[in-house]
Amino acid sequence: MEYQLYINGEWKDTVTGYVAEDKNPADDSVFARVHFAGGAEVEEAIAAAQRAWRPWADTPAAQKEQILLKAADWMQEHMDEVADVLMGESGSAFGKAYFEAGFAVDILRTAAGECRRVFGQVQQQEAGEISMIRRLPLGVVAGIAPFNFPLLLALKKVAFALAAGNTFVLKPASATPVSGVMIAKALDGAGIPKGVFNLVPGSGEEVGNKLIEDERIRMVAFTGSTAVGRGIAAKASALFKKYSLEMGGKNPLILLKDFDVEQAVRIAGFGAFFHQGQICMCTSRLIVEEPVYDRFCEAFAAYARTMKVGDPHQKDTIIGPLIKQEQCQIIDSQIQDAVSKGAVLMTGGTHEGNYYQPTVLKDVTPDMRIFYEESFGPVTSIIKAMDAQDAVRLCNDNQYGLSSSLLTNDLSKAMSLSLDMEAGMVHINNATVSDNSTVAFGGVKNSGVGREGGSYSIDEFTELKWITVQYTPAQLPF
């Protein structure tokens, strides 16, 4: 299959870019050929979005709502096609692919509901005066999406930005561009006006930088690595434009001694190995209180050995391929460093092609790279804590602060400790991998700036304007 750009309501071949091969990470075969934008196409997309944004901002909320609901219906009706794309270009296992496709429907429907809830405030500050705080769209928003949840994380940006009255230019990840095409198909099928949504696949240098640096783009919404996000923040700040950044994580799960070990194993296993651990909120550090440490280590390693590694299209596959071979090499290096410093490799640590075996290390300590570096693969570290306070200290001993878990039967203690855990999200008695289209998803420290989901996204994609109305003669000093 060959896929085109989507600019100003039309499917177009690239002229100044090139046609790229979209590879299947399972076997490195060509999944699709995709037109990548060049400079002229990026300019055309931004110009189209700029022309369209004022009419779209003035479009009645009910009309915006219907377009997003129709796009959700398209996603629902084409669920199998969308899931096949996710399995084919991102290596998503069968269950993950259908989960993501279903979540995309939910995001669009949630965003549709937000169209009617772009709320402001009315205040009476002075006699004879009405003071209004209006929440208004920014203008043109650019979105830069990652490869791991290429549909879901792109739509979180697109759908809520459109609901708030902005127009949009999307650059999907270079490794997963067809997921962006699915969004364009859904919105096109829903009757989105020309220029309101534009799709420009391409490289970060050719497309991403142009979007970030163009003054007509009033906000950049990004999900990806902390290194890239830091660069985006610097460039966007220099131009006084808004940005939201959802970046890396080295997410801890704390297991206290009073919690059921077998249940903890299942919670930790899902958090560690869902989508091969290629999730910003995957569980990569298991901090276990000393009295249950040995028992948990043995049980968790045994559970990891049961994970089926293989063809993403098979329903019982848990571990599919990593996105590229270079990621396997990064994990190899981290494991070698940890073992050389005293960690014990309990299972895994090998790969064939892009398929990495689920890997468990115990006795990991803060001097090891794997304690603080993202792995983005099916590998997790077990760390011993002497007590709950020590566990929280180890939890916070990291540059990241995205998601975290705390497993204990003492909910009073859990609520108290959760306030001390340096993370944007704390899940008590559940996995670090958790999401919902209405919540405030995001991190602290080097994990990001801003929040995604429901009304919190509307806050991100709008700006405030103060308007006063003097309905009696103003009392002026001169």
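Above is the first protein from milestone M3; the second protein from the same milestone is given next.
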Amino acid sequence: MGYQLTGRMAEVCSCKSLCPCAVGEDPDSGYCGFSWVFHFDRGEINEVDVSGLNLAFLGNHRGNVYDGKVRLAVIIDERADDAQQGALVEAFTGKAGGPLADLAALVSEVVGVIRTPIEFDVDKGTGSFTVQGVFEGDVRGFTAPDGTPTTLSHAVMGSLVGTPAYPGKVARHEVTDAEYGLQFKGRQATQTEFHYVAA
């Protein structure tokens, strides 16, 4: 199974400043609660077109993210048909190899797979997202004095979540998950641009 996926990912986590995981450091207080939303501007997985769809994670971990102890729920866009859902789950659980297998290697437990409507409108670090019944938020990217978006490049996590990264802050973040105990207070935000390829 091969894939080519191009798009944007918006992250919110419980750390108080720029995401420590981005540069390979431990999270604040040794714990990270996080939400990620991926939007596929263009994408194909084993000849299944996933362009325009979204996928989300809600999770947490203790210690360094590279210790591979991430626990998360996978949330699939309700608009995905069975073939698209199967392709996304295969790719993002690492079964298709490539950079997504490296990302999946950080995960020790998938607590559930959920289908729900997902909306995504984040660009250059600023915008909003809604994962219906699970979490939603508004984020604001940092900027230079002239309004140019602040970027972070050549970071350790860049190969896994995309580069450049647009760091920012949380204007609003609400977690409504009651089933998996993954609630957290969102503080920092980062948006990336990804291009995943595997033969």
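Note on the second protein: Residues 82-92 form the longest helix (11 residues).
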